[in-house]
Amino acid sequence: MDENLANDLAEFPALLEAVRESATDMLTGIESRPVARAPEALGREELPEHGVGLARALARFREDWEPRFSGSAGPRYFGFVTGGATPASVAGDWLTGVLDQNAMSGEDSAAIELERQTVDWIARMFGLDRHTGAFVSGATMSNFVGLAIAREWLGERIGISVADSGVGALGPVPVLSGTPHSSIFKSLSMLGIGRDSVRSVPTLPGREAVDVDRLAEALAALDGRPAIVVANAGTVNTVDFDDIRAIAALRERFPFWLHVDGAFGAFAALSPEHAELVDGLGEADSVCIDLHKWLNVPYDAGVQFSRHRDLQLRVFLNSAAYLSAPTGTPDFGHLVPENSRRLRALTAWFSLTAYGRAGHRDIVRRNISGANSLAGQITASGLLRLVAPVRLNVACFTLADRPTAERVTALADAIAESGETFVTPTVYEGQHALRAAFSNWRTTDADVERAAKAITAAALTLD
Ligand SMILES: *Cc1c(COP(=O)(O)O)cnc(C)c1O
Predict the structure, then answer these.
(1) Minimum CA distance residue for ligand 1 atom 6
(2) Which atom of ligand 1 is nearest to the CA of 292?
(3) Which residues are annotated with the PTM N6-(pyridoxal phosphate)lysine (predicted)?
């Protein structure tokens, strides 16, 4: 055995203790760490021929790399939609690595039973108990898998299996959607359906939610040709929600597969005052839910839900002589793109076991309240205004005076430089704007005030 490896084996418990101490140190410092870091170009080092052992690797990481990492797991990071990691989920993540299970098949471990149990809990949180669920790496993969099953369903309508014959046999596929996330286009590209297949359906006036009447017209114009409809719940700019129940009802008149991208918006289901935003979710053929955003588990985890396991199995079946053929409940390796798989469910299992539905509902409600409070505080100065009402957990705002691209970018930079908070730019209805997205369990009222002060102060520095 390599000398460093042998030493590390002998010292393993003490070394883990040192790692734990470092982790504690990083976690207690997370509130004082600058929220974001401007990346700088770094030179590349040679691959070490001989290593230095874990203790010195840890020291090197802490000196060279850790200080350059952002405080995105902390309470005042509002960029993109970036959840943190609850204490229990961090523990689950550590143990995932320690136990290093392969959650592909259930022949040698209960690991996949734990995944099934966790998927079942998540299904119940969102009213998806009639769906089959599987862990994937995030919402992009969840959208990809949902649309892959949709593609197989379209083939079945015309008597072919796309899984066997290829996407060429399918011809052009109409994909109808109001305000789809960028990952829908990426998924369609990966699936051979193509980004250009998306037919944009008009949204309601002043909204990002699709106009269901216009969707019905677009479906009628297909003359009975099957389609894919992607409903959005909610959108990233203004967290607007399509009327899922009304869209699902259109299936009585038109043949289409309904995929709902509920990456983070589906968590509205946890808040009684907002649950109606995702009413009808259980009617969807496939549903995407991200977990590393609003469930607050570490990257990377999302769940894919579908109501057509037979078609899913056709797409993702991985048959080989040494693998048992799927009978009964198929192994996860036959339901998703990955074969060998990390036991991603363990982080969610820990967090749901430790905090339950109520604990996670509390995170969602506090974040919604935080977004509303921030919106109130930053607009009170008169320097900033909202470009859309706060519907859930995002405040989308811009400068009251001359919100040009340059000035809004300068504002974003000034906010980031403060180290106090971090927001990301967008363009909404042609207006340059910034989004503050709340999805971190640690965020308190005091954090919201601190962030609001930093944003207002940054706005004051612009000429
Ligand atoms: C974040 C997001 C995605 C993509 O999620 P990843 O986890 O980054 O792959 C897809 N859809 C929506 C609505 C999102 O917010």
Answers:
(1) 139
(2) 7
(3) 293
